[in-house]
Amino acid sequence: MKSKLPYNTKFFSSRSKYGSKKTIVDNIKFDSKWEAERYGQLKAMERAMFIRDLELQVPYDIVVNDVKICRYVADFRYKKESNHTITNDEYYVEVVEDAKGFETPEFKLKKKLMKAVFNIDIYLSKKK
After folding, report:
1. What is the C-alpha to C-alpha distance for residues 27 and 38, in angstroms, rounded to an integer?
2. Is 81:87 a contact under the CB 8 Å cutoff?
3. What confidence tens digit (pLDDT) does each residue in 90-100 have?
4. 45: which residues sit within 8 A by CB, 6+ positions away?
5. Centroid of chain to Cα 90
6. How is residue 31 annotated by DSSP?
7. Where does the pLDDT of residue 18 fall: very low under 50, low under 70, confident under 90, or very high at 90 and above?
8. Which of 11, 44, 49 minimizes the C-alpha distance to 25?
9. What is the C-alpha separation between 61 and 55, in angstroms, rounded?
10. Calpha distance 75→122 (Å, rounded)
11. pTM of full prediction above 0.70
12. Residue ranges of the domains in the chain?
């Protein structure tokens, strides 16, 4: 008969499936160190007025033929100036961004669905 070892929750819950480590910045919990780092970069860009209206964890319900297929939660959404130099609202483009270290098959599918349903291209920021 096999002896059962006690379940060590600290050992099994210390890492995520893809090795990301949860990080807290400005009292906000991020799913990875890279996402927290990218948040810091975007906050600096917002202070320098390169971008505006920074939002975090923006949900999109993807519905096809009145049936909810899934929900995509973008890491960031913000507005940045387009190629025009006038600062009216119509000269700002909305950017939906996801900070990823690894593209999962689920993310690739949701990225395609976002393009098909909302005509939104997700900007993928990867750590260099």
Report:
1. 15
2. yes
3. 678 899 999 98
4. 51
5. 25
6. S
7. low
8. 44
9. 17
10. 10
11. yes
12. 52-125
